[in-house]
């Protein structure tokens, strides 16, 4: 008889992965501490050892996870900005179930550090107003992904346990959506690089 495999230790990373799986597959309203504990095969209270503030801390952690993006600096500020926007779009589309958190939670922790990193990259590349550019780029990416997710047919369920669930399509990603995103990004970058008039 083979020896039983030891249980995988509970960790913050495992908790976040399981929570993302529930949110993307069943909707954010169905992400409860009890359901998360069941998915992890632990008592719900065990999660509080890693997230002492419970559900609030979990929501913050999920938002931080999908908005923490790093991109290598390019040869120009435009290339750096484009790389960051593409990486951010991919991260958000991967987890449509927590898009609402990404849109409403202020950047904290690693997400805030990543934003400062992006701002420094654009400043080092010579962009006159890197902080303003980052705000505009984030607004564009978040808005574009929100439209893509809406058009993909992904929808948050009402919370009724008897409601049939339609699996998400991971936020679209069609060639038309890609082309629309790049076209809008080109226009935004051109505007950010244009001389300011008073």
From TrEMBL:
Keyword vocabulary terms for this entry: DNA-binding, Repressor, Transcription, Transcription regulation
A Pfam family hit: TetR_N
SUPFAM superfamilies: Homeodomain-like, Tetracyclin repressor-like, C-terminal domain
Chain residue ranges for the region called Disordered: 152-180
Ranges annotated as DNA-binding: 32-51
Positions of the HTH tetR-type domain: 9-69
Protein name: TetR/AcrR family transcriptional regulator C-terminal domain-containing protein
Organism: Streptosporangium vulgare
Taxonomic lineage of the native organism: Bacteria, Bacillati, Actinomycetota, Actinomycetes, Streptosporangiales
């Amino acid at each position: 008889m083979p020896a039983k495999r030891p249980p995988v230790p509970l960790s913050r990373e495992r908790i976040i992965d399981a929570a993302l799986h529930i949110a993307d597959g069943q909707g954010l309203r169905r992400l409860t501490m009890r359901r998360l504990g069941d998915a992890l095969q632990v008592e719900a209270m065990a999660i509080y050892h890693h997230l002492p503030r419970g559900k609030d801390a979990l929501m913050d952690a999920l938002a931080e996870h999908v908005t923490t993006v790093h991109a290598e600096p390019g040869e120009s500020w435009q290339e750096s900005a484009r790389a960051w926007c593409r990486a951010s779009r991919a991260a958000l589309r991967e987890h449509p179930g927590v898009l609402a958190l990404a849109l409403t939670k202020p950047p904290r922790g690693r997400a805030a550090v990543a934003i400062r990193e992006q701002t420094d990259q654009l400043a080092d590349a010579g962009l006159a107003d890197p902080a303003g550019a980052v705000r505009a780029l984030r607004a564009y990416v978040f808005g574009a992904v929100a439209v893509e997710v809406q058009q993909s047919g992904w929808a948050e369920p009402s919370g009724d346990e008897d409601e049939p669930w339609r699996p998400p399509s991971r936020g679209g990603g069609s060639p038309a959506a890609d082309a629309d995103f790049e076209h809008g990004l080109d226009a935004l970058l051109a505007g950010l690089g244009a001389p300011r008039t008073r």
